[in-house]
Records
---
Amino acid sequence: MAANTLVERARRRLAISRAHQISDQRTRSIAELVAARAPQPTKAPVVFFNASTRLSGVSLNAAFGMLAGWSLRLQGVPVVNFVCKRGMTQCVLGTDRREPPKAPPCAVCMRQSRVLYHGGENVVFEFQPDAALDAALESLDLAGLSAFTWQGMPLGELVLPSARWILRRHHLHEDPTTLRILREYIRSAWSVGAQFHKLLDEVRPAAVVVFNGMQYPEASARWVARQKGLPVYSHEVGLRPMSAFFTPGDATAYPLALPEDFELDADQNARLDAYLQNRFQGNFIMAGVRFWPEMSALDPEFLTLAKGFRQIVPVFTNVIFDTSQPHANVLYEDMFTWLDEVLETARAHPDTLFVIRAHPDEARKGKASEESVAEWAERRQVEQLPNVRFIRPETYISSYDLIRMAKFVMIYNSTIGLEASILGALVLAAGRSRYSQADTVRFPASRQEYQRELEALLLAPEARAPERYRQNARRFLYYQLYRSSLPFDAFLEEDQVWAGYVRLKDFEPRALLPENSPTLRAISEGLFAGGDFLLKEE
């Protein structure tokens, strides 16, 4: 049995290696065609930086940056890639949180970089230690590292989201592992920032494009560029498969301004309804991941339990370490502070069944939370309360069935809030979300106001959402799906190896010109013509 397992593993590794070799060769071939056909530059350069997108293979966001850069070069815009060459003592993707002293896999990453940036203008950065900085960091505790500033650069603030992401928790422990990671991230962030500063002075770009903007290498670069008054654009995966979201704001906040006069016509409504029909059945993928491999109806036991209460209020949570969370934490310090208050409210309202649902991504293999809602529920003995039902992340009951039974819905900033509004439910949000900007949910202005509204809703005979919430939610979702999610499926397909990783289709470089690609037209106009990075309505 063991021998068979070893053979299968060897075959799997060989298949992965072969698939990536074929993909890399296609990338090099197209890169050479782009280099051969790019005209002489006529404009100021654009700097691209995405050190946190991948190690080996081609992730979606690595591909978005590569294709956008190729398109610009074919338009006569010089592109400078800022490329890591052992430039960080610990990068985000290369950190082994179980063994922090372990060196990141730099050789693998640099080999992939040579493929992705083949034939381009590349400026590499290597780690440059700073003895004075090291001395200043040596004796700092968790609080000191988290708030650390060096020569005006808020390094602690810049690296915290990455430390939380890699450690899979919001509340960091004061332990050697955490302190080491924070120190190495700060040292590396300073080195990245100093070299990026030098690069910007040398090339004087028109703009900077970074992935995500919250992971510390890109966050450091973005901070430096903004200090210089340069426009910085960030990108993340869009809502549809093989799509990207570009913005001059923070990509993880997904700023999106709906025109006041935008209304869905009959065709647009039908298009959205078709999407929602699939989504409400769990049939959707984002970033190569299907979050609901199955979806089951509410079981008879739960339905019997629910009959014993005056009303049902679902409570939907988030993954605590997600890079969207810093944008959400406006009323509350973090989601768990809010959940603690929800629990106190539940104790005061025994006639209400509160159904607290953990996010399914909390238990995703390879990304499971170390500080989870499941852990919180166990620690707080949530299920000992007769009017609280906790649904674990690996339990695939339909959230939409819960919403249809609910008096109203409570969320932090989960996407389910937008869907609940579309279903006609009144949604009370405790965290800022991408859709709270569009008058789709109730999002109180303060923590005190939130508590007053929650109490009023629980005591009211009924809770009805204004019709404008549902209509605005539909408008916002349509914009997200079909205007701001820029499709790259003309150029990319799944690599058949890893979820969220892709390979290039076979296409001619001219397909990357704005006149031949609505996606790349939107990106080019967004970078140079005051565009909004939105697709034109066909």
Note: The chain has a mean pLDDT of 93.
---
Amino acid sequence: MNITLCGGGSWGTAIARLLSNKGHKVNFYIRNKSVIDDIKKNKENTKYLPGAKFEKEINLTDDLDSVLKDIDVFVIAVPTSSTRGILEKIKDKISKDTIIVNLSKGIEVETLDRISEISSEILKDNPFVALSGPSHAEEVGSDIPTTVVASSLDMKAAVKIQHEFSTSIFRIYTNPDLIGVEMGGALKNIIALAAGMNDGLGYGDNSKAALMTRGIYEMSKLGIALGANPHTFNGLSGIGDLIVTCTSMHSRNRRAGILIGEGKSMEEACKEVGQVVEGVKTVKSSYKLSKLKNIEMPITNALYQVLYEGYDPNKAVYDLMTRKNKDEIEKMDISGNVISGMHEALREFVKPGLTTMQVNDFCEKFIRSKGAIPAQIGFEVFPYATCCSVNDEICHGYPSDDVIKSGDLLKVDTVVELNGWMSDSCWSYAVGEIDEDTQNLMDVTRECLYEGIKLAVIGNRLGDIGAKIQSIAETNGYSVVREFTGHGIGRGMHEDPMVLHYGKEHRGLRLQEGMVLTIEPMINMVTHKLKIDKNGWTARTIDGNKSCQYEHTLSITKDGQRILTKLQGQ
């Protein structure tokens, strides 16, 4: 094949070398003539990819127009900000059959376009293929085995690039989800910046793992909102690329993040890295997209504050994990009053003969009558205002036409949003006359909640809360569910930190003023083991015995804890 590659950085150099070694005719356009002279003299790009020798002849040029005629493939390996200009230059100078292959990973700041969208706007008829995945130029240049993904709306083009670009050490899979592949490649750079900041600030592997885990979720949320397949983010161009970029010193984005965490400005960090740090601009474009699509992206928001508003990185990490100010807590308290009022009304409403759907409808009507929003509706795929879980259903029960009977244990869990702030509470209800065992389970679970809350004070650790809850439950012969936890809450339904209801004292994040979180122990009558229903949501005890849950949203204050979802009489 006759291939022209544009961009003399490390990644462009690595791919140019790979393609020439495979036997393709490669025209390597590099704007900087000194880099061309360097490669001609040393058979390697000593500035951007030292040690990666070109073993076969390659046509080096700084005249783009001279290498556009009769080419089969045009490869873009320039920063996202330069892509539009390059495509405008080659417009009307290449055949409509020429395949455009993009190696860069970003989102145009001004238009919020992905690179495929830029290409389709300028080169309407040319097939476009995105090549993405966990791939450091340094390793490809050293012939270390690497696997990536080729994605296109024209899968014939993707398959062709797969065949022509693959070697024994460079394996390519195909994926038709172009949006997901492009967004995964772009957004992981944001999380890599955050991971680098984590390292530069002196935080450990635990916090970085949390960032990466929450990062892949954040990436997928925006991607899905734009039309991506959620499964793409679990593959090479999602979590695969995320892992390698967040953990390797080859990563420009991680290195820049480290420098920022150590106290350097964004400009100083990028200058020291020496090549374009795509994540810096992707933070801005993704921040804009998140606002446009009304998607909660706390990591992106925190980085935007650091990079573009001069916010202290250490404070940003802390805020990301924990803190709310007084005004924000007051707003959450108002939201909490709605949810506590709902639960108080349910005390009179719940009785044998009702369906769980009737309970759900009652709650939704109550919430909306207060000018609030039942935030669970539309969360991921959940369609109801409440989770109504009965007896052996631990949590996330679907409201239905099933009738509750005397002796049943009903748990009603909901999230209320009011003026942009959320509160979360679950309460358990005895339906009619219940037996002594069920009553005891309810009493112990409620004790677990309030004894855990007592320990939610400045200076204690999250592990202190979990250890206390576990001790009470197991002393009474019950068990604590492991798979579902409490969590931070604010503008988002689920924020950091994660609050385990089991564990060891003196472990975990230290509690500080301004933290807002939920404590929501789920206590099973026998084993803590569970199973998930076919709906993918409802969890129930594996042995069919009852489970109970109580939950409050609370804030940590200098005077102790403040329950934001407190019911009358408590």
Note: The domain at 326-563 is CATH 3.90.230.10 (Creatine Amidinohydrolase).
---
Amino acid sequence: MENEVKKSLNFIEEIVEKDLQEGKNDGRIQTRFPPEPNGYLHIGHVKAICMDFGIAEKYNGVCNLRFDDTNPVKEDVEYVDSIQQDIAWLGFKWGNIYYASDYFQQLYDLAIEFIKQGKAYIDEQTAEQIAEQKGTPTEPGVASPYRDRPIDENLRLFQAMQNGEIEDGKMVLRAKIDMANPNMHFRDPIMYRIITTHPHHRTGRRWNVYPMYDFAHPLSDAREGVTHSLCSLEFENHRPLYDWFLQALDIEMPPRQIEFARLNLNYCLTSKRKCLALVNEGIVDGWNDPRMATLSGMRRRGYTPQAIRNFCEKIGVSKAYSVVDYGLLESCVRDDLNANAPRAMAVLRPLKVVIDNYPEDKTETLEVEIHPEHPEMGTRKVTFGKTLYVEQEDFMIEPVKKYFRLFPGNEVRLKSAYFVKCVGYDTDENGNVTCVHCTYDPESRGGNSPDGRKVKGTLHWVSEADSFKAEVRLYDRLFNKENPSDESAGAFTENLNPESLIVLNDCLIEGGLKDGLKAGDTFQFMRQGYFCVDITSTEDKVVFNRTVQLNSSWGK
């Protein structure tokens, strides 16, 4: 369209378009998303996923999925499967699936070439000694006493490492670069270490030595034909080393590493170690607990892929560190569900209402819109009868100022039904209200009175004649501190929000909703918020999770 405003490019798109204009990489665009399969994907990964796949998609390229599986101690096929599921759920499609382990033999052979060229050596120092002799950012490092080993001896020892003749931690292979370089990553980085204690999830016991990230990553990128290696900002200082390995191998069209600021979200915990502690200590119900920042947890809670992608679009791409407010994510979820979620009525804390002047044995079927803004979605049927249920908070004996719901003598509208007027109430021996008595105006069916009188309150309801019980889990943020990892005042577990989960039993849901319910189905419960069917839900016990409230109430 002529009046359509062209969206400005982010700095990565500017680089890509310039490369295309200059004919680099023969006009190809190829990216990759390279997670290590050592845990579940979380919200912090989403920005990288959207960047890697989004760039390829926008410029008619391809984005491959590569598992950087170079540490068998922490990796598992469970994580491989969950990562693929999460990416597919977000709506992205990869070109091919690769594994760093696909290249173990080639990487091993390349390491031997580095040794033969005098660019790598076997070091027998401990990890602590190596760290100490590397120096500081302002002071040069000290050369290892093993730095000038003869090439033949390095080759022999590297073979012994692979043969399983050397204990874990006794030797490493280091690149011989520059112990005085201001970039600490250049001070003879480790290329290979020994791991004999854990079999690899794909290669089993085939290998006893495993490449480090800084060695495996650029060479994997090059082998696959990656043109733009997009990664988060913490790898910026690694880029010169990334380029050094590529230059050492004389790659004809080396990939280009570009860094962007990672996604940091307040009130969220993404540390895999701390998340694992939450799971192991039973604080949460597994990695897919709806309060977790994992994608599987957000999916179970009812967050939609489109909402998450819209969120990433809104925060944009930059190189500046920032922390995004969790409320923005909730707002994106709320906007998407508001536009698409069918409506329903649910009473979470039921209070009985009897319509005294309604015929004892009569029920009516009322037509209610499924979505007020989408008439094409049609209508649903709800049953009205003498005995109904409303929320406990929708009745007060002595109303506060500007309270327009039920109280003695007040008239309200029942959604899509009738005007009803409170004429009394019953209490138990403790003074708790057990039942509200009302009369209805038979002429007000549909929620309008023929005499034109107005009422200020409209309540949702369900009928005793056609409703079913459900468990409803009211989820909120898991932490009540913006930076839950801050342990300055104690352990991070002391920052937990005690109201992150409230379970309500005996909630009542309009009867027509039960037919065909399946896990993941999402609804707006009128005046309550957005809810989805939990994966544990059964026909005998229906369970709903609150996805997000209608409006943000955090901090109020």
Note: The longest strand covers residues 501-510.
